[in-house]
Amino acid sequence: MSESVMVPTDSGAMPTHLWRPPAGRGPGIVLLQEIFGVSAYIQRRGAQLAELGYVVAAPEIFWRLGVTSPVEGDDALQQGMGLVQRLDWDRAVLDAVAAVEWLRRQEAVDAGVGVVGFCFGGGLGFNVAARLEAEGAAPVDTLVSYYGSALPGLHAAMTVAAPSLHHFGLADSFIDTATVRAIEESVTQQPATVFETYEGADHAFDNDEMPWHDAAASALAWSTTAEFLREHLPTS
């Protein structure tokens, strides 16, 4: 079970879900949501990361829009896309940066802090990592991005030198294969970047609540993610 905490930002406190590992201490991970918010699926991933030994914080990135619960229902995709269109992206980046910096200060976090993001959160995490490095601030220790939806517009403009893992399906309905390959060529110029692709997998293939879920790709990607985190953000 997660607990509810408030992360301070430049204009108020951001509601955030926090999971602690069985040992009570460990490295930190900021978990960044899809367009549907901190859904039951994202919460399951948060709990699974905690089981791997991480202190996990999942901020409600839509809080400035007055939305702090998951987007659900038959029109969830339309609702989520509408929220993203209304969102101030730069503010969202700063809020996610605030979550990284807050997690670093927590007594339970006894090592580095990484970022794991899905779809909207995958692109947001990339921007957060790039911003911290560009500003000379304490960088994230690792980044795992699942089919980052903002990557098509970000990869040519910014770089992430931290150890990074990207997952993309090659049957993505929203990001065509040519764009995926362009992102791959760009981000893998950084030597610590790993780029994994999955034949036949659509966008959001990891989300078992979505019609695009691909069980085989999801299992393989999660195993790769866990191994990558163990290597670059080891737990004691």
Describe the protein.
There is one protein chain. Helix content is 37%, strand content 22%. The protein is an alpha/beta fold. It has an 8-stranded mixed sheet with strand order 1-2-4-3-5-6-7-8, with helices on both faces. The longest helix has 18 residues. The chain is globular, with a radius of gyration of 16 Å. The model has no long low-confidence stretch (mean pLDDT 97).
> Domains counted in the coordinates: how many?
1
How many H/I helices?
A: 7
Distance between the termini: 22 Å
N-to-C SSE series? EEEHEHHEHEHEHEH
The CATH superfamily appears as: Alpha/Beta hydrolase fold, catalytic domain
| Multimeric state | single chain
Query: What does the average pLDDT come to?
Result: 97
Shape: globular
The Cα radius of gyration reads 16 Å
CATH top level class name: Alpha Beta
> Order of strands across the biggest sheet?
1-2-4-3-5-6-7-8
Kindly state the percentage of residues in helix: 25-40%
Quote the beta fraction: 15-25%
CATH architecture: 3-Layer(aba) Sandwich
Number of strands: 8
CATH topology: Rossmann fold
Q: Report the biggest beta sheet as strand number plus sense, adding barrel if it closes.
A: 8 strands, mixed
Ranges where pLDDT stays below 50 over 5 or more residues in a row are none
Class from helix and strand fractions: alpha/beta
Pfam families: DLH
GO molecular function: hydrolase activity
Protein name: Carboxymethylenebutenolidase
